[in-house]
TrEMBL record:
The lineage of its organism: Eukaryota, Metazoa, Ecdysozoa, Nematoda, Chromadorea. One of its GO terms (molecular function) is pyruvate dehydrogenase (acetyl-transferring) activity. The keyword DNA damage does not apply. This is pyruvate dehydrogenase (acetyl-transferring). One of its GO terms (biological process) is pyruvate decarboxylation to acetyl-CoA. It comes from the Eukaryota. Its main location: mitochondrion. It is an enzyme of class 1 (oxidoreductase). Its EC number is 1.2.4.1.
Length: 292
């Protein structure tokens, strides 16, 4: 079963675990223990938790947020076809569990910077659906008064929405530097796609982040294609979580929202402990073209 990118397949509790007892007496409990999908680790002795607890409130919250993003993007697609949205329009359809799972583990003072597929992130980090749609259609009531459009939306601790492929990578390292300089116990989550994973500025940014042990999580949302080019045809190595070399990494099945949440918790704790940056690869899939 799959709802808005949230796969329930293989999420059954361990037999004999507290979770299985909760399933049997679900009317007497408000939470269930699930197993996460297996992780792949690079230069780490241990990784995220292999099981996690999900409350009824969180389950409904995650489901609602993913459905809102899905319906918002469907509406954006329809408006684009009606020529009410101009220019490019990159939809997040299929990748909802990445953003919602990450936000489920983040603090309000953590920072996020991403690429141009940013509508869902904009909604999750402070804007209303109407503000996102208004921005897409160039209205003054939009997220940035109709001046940013599809690729340039912002909010507190949300630094975009960047239209240049890979340009957000060194900016993310800079935001993490500011956090360390101010002695904040927060992290900057710097997202990019597999199409931007071969950019030279990524390797420059990870080198600087490791050199200064910055609290930066570099996250590759690997949806399998950079525009229309498959990852296998563009990258000599598609194990993006290992591409930091001396920077530890984690591979995550990002169609499983709970696996994403636990990996994000682990990454945040790792970076905030002063160990420096971490790389995450979120294996996901977009259900629409690169841009409609």
């Amino acid at each position: 079963m799959n709802f808005a990118g949230f796969s329930l397949r293989n999420l059954s509790p361990k037999i004999g675990s507290p979770g299985s007892a909760v399933i049997a007496s679900r009317f007497a409990s408000n939470e269930v223990t699930f197993q996460t999908r297996p992780y792949k680790l690079h230069k780490l002795d241990s990784g995220p938790a292999s099981e996690t607890t999900l409350t009824k409130e969180d389950a409904l919250d995650y489901y609602r947020k993913m459905q809102v993003i899905r319906r918002m993007e469907t509406s954006a697609g329809n408006l684009y076809k009606e020529k009410k949205i101009r220019g490019f329009c990159h939809l997040y359809t299929g990748q909802e569990a990445c953003a919602v799972g990450m936000v489920g583990a983040m603090d309000k003072e953590d920072a996020v910077i991403t690429a141009y597929r940013c509508h869902g992130w904009t909604y999750l980090l402070g804007s209303t659906v109407l503000e996102v749609i208004a921005e897409l259609t160039g209205k003054i009531s939009g997220n940035v008064y109709g001046k940013g459009g599809s690729m340039h939306m912002y909010d507190k601790n949300f630094f975009g929405g960047n239209g240049i492929v890979g340009a957000q990578q060194p900016l993310g390292a800079g935001i993490a530097f500011a956090m360390k300089y101010r002695k904040q116990k927060n992290s900057c989550f710097t997202l990019y796609g597999d199409g931007a994973a071969n950019q030279g500025q990524l390797f420059e940014a990870t080198n600087m982040a490791k050199l200064w042990d910055l609290p930066c999580v570099f996250i590759c949302e690997n949806n399998g294609f950079g525009m229309g080019t498959s990852a296998d045809r563009a990258s000599a190595s598609t194990d993006y979580y290992t591409r930091g070399d001396y920077v530890p990494g984690i591979w995550v099945d990002a169609m499983d929202i709970l696996s994403v949440r636990e990996a994000t918790r682990f990454a945040k704790e790792y970076c905030n402990s002063g160990k420096g940056p971490l790389m995450m690869e979120l294996a996901t899939y977009r259900y629409s073209g690169h841009s409609i």
